[in-house]
Amino acid sequence: MATVKWNQDINAGSNWFADINILDSNGAARDVTGQTFQSYIRRHYKSINKEEITITVVNPVTGNVTFELSAAQTSALKHGKYLYDIEMTETATGIVERIIQGVITIRPEITK
What we know:
Layout: E1 4-5, E2 8-11, E3 16-21, E4 35-42, E5 51-52, E6 54-59, E7 64-69, H1 71-76, E8 80-90, E9 96-107
Parallel strand pairs: 1-9, 2-9
Antiparallel strand pairs: 3-7, 4-5, 4-8, 6-7, 8-9
């Protein structure tokens, strides 16, 4: 299945939250029972420094998942463009699938 490209703008110092439903190739809800997720945001793909995006499976049967960066995490990031992706791993087989990728632009925080 093709990776969805989804770019985001985030204000530094603010909580960022996204709520999505993972769909199959026919547009139907995808059951993500037995899947694990991992995601990082980095300045560029070879960056050693990274922030982990918290992923919570809200409803595995409907594929409803949330992604979150805390205000402390976004505040720690310098303004500019970053890369991120979200990978889903089938625990039974170890098959890894990148489900979302894109660019996150961090807007500078004025009020601290």
